[in-house]
Specification:
The protein is α+β, with helices and mostly antiparallel strands. The protein has helices at 8-21, 28-39, 46-52, 58-70, 114-131, 147-150, and strands at 44-45, 74-77, 85-88, 97-101, 107-110, 141-144.
Length: 151
């Protein structure tokens, strides 16, 4: 989910700190990828990033995303198709869930009302308690067929 531009400096400060803690630098390519993911309203594949960031070589895109993922700046989402999608780590944006098309691999973000989110948390805490699982957070992926593929 895109951040407001007012939060942009905090995003870069956090990305810089996480990369430094991982022994990495916040290079121009890494900053460009972070900015493109921040602008997007959905997770992006590497081909989509390459279209948007014309100066970024494909090999650099793979390396950049790997470093950003390892540092906890981005999260990789895998579907059934050949391309993973990437988004900013959830703690850098807002809590959200995903619609995933099982045909084309498209992923869209969605949020639910706070009341439903509270109920989900309550139910999942009960499941964790009954099973002895120490749950810290949850992700909800709704897998199905997008409108384009459904037609």
């Amino acid at each position: 989910m895109p951040l407001s531009s007012a939060l942009m400096p905090d995003l870069h400060t956090t990305a810089l700190a996480r990369l430094r803690a991982d022994g990495q630098r916040y290079t121009t390519n890494r900053r460009s990828v972070v900015e493109e993911l921040e602008r997007s309203d959905r997770p992006l594949s590497i081909p989509e990033l390459l279209v948007a960031l014309k100066d970024l070589a494909q090999s650099s895109a793979y390396r950049t995303l790997s470093v950003l993922e390892h540092a906890g700046v981005v999260r990789r989402l895998v579907t059934h198709d050949e391309f993973a999608r990437y988004e900013l780590a959830e703690d850098l944006t807002e809590h959200h869930h995903h619609l995933i098309c099982s045909r084309c691999g498209m992923i869209e973000d969605f949020t639910v009302p706070d009341s439903l989110e509270t109920e989900l948390d309550r139910c999942l805490r009960r499941v964790a308690s009954r099973t002895g699982f120490a749950g810290a957070s949850h992700r909800l992926d709704l897998v199905g067929t997008c409108a384009r593929c459904h037609r």
